[in-house]
Amino acid sequence: MVEALKNINLEINIGSYCSIVGKSGSGKSSLLKIIGLLDFDYEGTYVLFDNQLRSNKDTVVSKHRRKIGFVFQDFQLINRYTVQKNLETASVIKLGYVDKERISEVLEEVEMSSKAESYPDELSGGQKQRISIARAMLAKPDLLIADEPTGAIDEENTENILELIDKLHKNTNTTIIIVTHDMDVAQRADRIIELRDGVISNDRVLL
Amino acid sequence: MIGYFFKSAFTTLKYNKFRTFLTGLGIFVGVASVIIIVSFSDSFSHHLSNKFNQKVTLGLVSSIGDNTDFTEVITSNEIQTVANEVRKMEDVLSFEQAEGSKKIDCQLSNGTWQYNVDIAFDDDVSIVDGNSFNSAIGNVVIAYQSGTDETSPVYKLGDSVVIDGIVYTIIGTTTDLSATIYFPQRLSSQVSYQEAFDIAAFYLTTNNKNPDTVNIILDMLNAELEDSVNFVNYTEEDSESIGSIFSTISIFLSLIASISLIVSAINIINIMYISILERANEIAIYRSLGMTKGMVVYLFLIESLLIVVMFALMGYLFGLLASYLILTIMDINLYVSINSLLLIVTISVVLGIGAGIKPAMKASNTNLSILLR
Ligand SMILES: Nc1ncnc2c1ncn2[C@@H]1O[C@H](COP(=O)(O)OP(=O)(O)OP(=O)(O)O)[C@@H](O)[C@H]1O
Ligand SMILES: [Mg+2]
Question: Same domain, yes or no, for B46 and B63?
Fold first, then answer.
């Protein structure tokens, strides 16, 4: 039995922009999995938007996941689908139908309209990440979760991706939680939570 | 949503064309072989029992004891007599095609005539004089009754008409205005006599299994016999036991054939498991986007059902076509009972769901942690 996190007592305000930092193996991803309803293997309670959720209520959990936008380090796009089909699938799962209008809207926002018919393998890392941000924004999420969103892309693209996230936060007041080991990235948030060996070692609000 | 993922499942199968083909091949071969075996055994059984049932065996039994010398109670000449009667009935059979207008020879009480009459087959003629066909056997007709004119034929009970060289006795008359001669319907379709007969058994074939016909012949034979000895119909029991033997063989062969279906079901389970392992990431993505477990089960179940149904259908058609062609060469009619066909449809759908459900459940339990690192 591995204890990746210990004595975590954390409250995150709606509409805030938090970054979680820490060394490799400090438990950042483990915490994010719990926050994002991807992992229920923990002791204690987690309350998301006034709901305490457990894994055995799959339909309720699924409903909440639809209001969360995920951005992963490895993009997690479906490689055998085109960009358009990736977004359509997400639209069907999240909204129950294919919202073509919204899809072209988010593609425009991430400046990827011209690549709608491309396959993920035909895109650069930065482009893939922009598509995955488009997918996360598609259903106007209440919460955006990003685990090392810039971990697999170069500096120039990093700036681009972070600007997209900043813009989302400013325009829609979406709650954002971003995991990073890069202090420059973390500085963009209004709160930095630092983990060390599964324990919160520092938690400060930036002005 | 369900419609979208139905299309999606189809796309996935198309995307993995070769694998889909290989998976489906097992189902195709399995279903085709079951169909071929079932339709062969059904057709053979149908063919043989038909053939067997056409031949009715009348045998002699004695109420005195087993030591009866049958040659003393009936001579082959007497059987010959009956056989000839039966042969005449066969002649009536050949007459069937000639229903309609015909010129006949009449040896009537008021002279000999050549006259055009209508020929009809009808068991239910309303009689004004004489008998209907109910009790009559042999060469009998019912004729219309006309006036007593010296210049036209007058048909009376007991008179004879000759049609195609065979003499028929008038047993009844009608008041029909048209010149019609009626033959009993039962004679029009049933009896044809086969050459072999001996002292112990008398074979005949009939087009239908009408027991009346057989009984008429039994009556004719028994009329020639003493009371202690009787002709009886042996066939009834035999044809029943032949039927049951074949249905047993049919069930047994089907069981063997369904083993190949089980093998292909295992094949599907195997491939679905591999597919799920390969697509763990994709499933995790769907789940992280908010797809329910139920929807994941549906998605994978649809995939395996699509494979099974598509290829089972092809196997089905191929099996029927192959059986038809081979049986036609063997000069046997293709005959598959509806029950067998329904059973195979049911089995393939159950196999599709059965083989798909376990992997689909596993898919729905894919760990979502793999998306992060
Ligand atoms: N599935 C797992 N089973 C057992 N232990 C795990 C599992 N996942 C992570 N761990 C352990 O939990 C601890 C925290 O892991 P976590 O992935 O949260 O680290 P992290 O902060 O995200 O690191 P990185 O920056 O390298 O991504 C580590 O010690 C890791 O070995
Ligand atoms: Mg991590």
Answer: no
Q: What is the pTM of this model?
A: 0.68
Q: Which of A76, A103, A178 to mutate to test the interface with B (most CBs of B within 10 A)?
A: A76
Q: What is the ipTM of this complex?
A: 0.94
Q: What spacing in Å lies between the alpha carbon of A24 and ligand 1's midpoint?
A: 8
Provide the domain count of chain B: 3
Give the start-to-end residue ranges of the domains of chain A: 17-205
Q: Examine the domain organization and report whether B211 and B157 are in the same domain.
A: no
Question: Do B139 and B262 share a domain, yes or no?
Answer: no
Q: State the ligand closest to the CA atom of A38.
A: 1
> Do residues B82 and B207 both lie within one domain?
yes
| Residues from A in contact with B at Cβ < 8 Å | 29, 32-33, 36, 38-39, 58-59, 62-68, 70, 72-74, 76-78, 80, 89-90, 92-94, 96-98, 135, 147
Indicate if B142 and B88 belong to the same structural domain: no
Tens-digit pLDDT profile for residues A3-56? 888 888 888 889 999 999 998 888 899 999 999 898 888 888 888 888 787 777
Cβ A164 vs Cβ A4: under 8 Å:
no
Instruction: Give yes or no: residues B187 and B256 share one domain.
Output: no
Averaged pLDDT score across all residues of chain B: 74
Same domain, B107 and B143: yes
b/e map B262-272, b = 16+ CB within 10 Å = eebbebbbebb
Interface contact B2, partner A, CB < 8 A? no
Q: Which CATH number fits domain A17-205: 3.20.20.70, 3.40.1010.10, 3.30.70.141, 3.40.50.300?
A: 3.40.50.300
Q: Output the tens digit of pLDDT for each of chain A's 207 residues.
A: 778 888 888 888 899 999 999 988 888 999 999 998 988 888 888 888 887 877 778 888 999 999 999 999 888 999 999 999 999 999 999 999 999 999 999 999 888 899 999 999 999 888 998 899 899 999 999 999 999 888 888 888 888 888 888 888 889 889 999 999 888 888 889 999 999 988 888 888 887
Provide the residue range defining the domain that includes B160. 102-195
B126 in the same domain as B172: yes
HEC sequence for chain B: CHHHHHHHHHHHHHHCHHHHHHHHHHHHHHHHHHHHHHHHHHHHHHHHHHHHHHEEEEEEEECCCCCCCHHHHCCHHHHHHHHHHHHHHHHHHHHHHHCEEEEEEEEECCEEEEEEEEEEECCCCCCCEECCCCCCCCCEEEEECCCCCCCCCCCCCCCEEEECCEEEEEEEEECCCCCEEEECHHHHHCEEEEEEECCCEEEEEECCCCHHHHHHHHHHHHHCCCCCEEEEECHHHHHHHHHHHHHHHHHHHHHHHHHHHHHHHHHHHHHHHHHHHHCHHHHHHHHHHCCCHHHHHHHHHHHHHHHHHHHHHHHHHHHHHHHHHHHHHCCCCCCCCHHHHHHHHHHHHHHHHHHHHHHHHHHHCCCHHHHCC
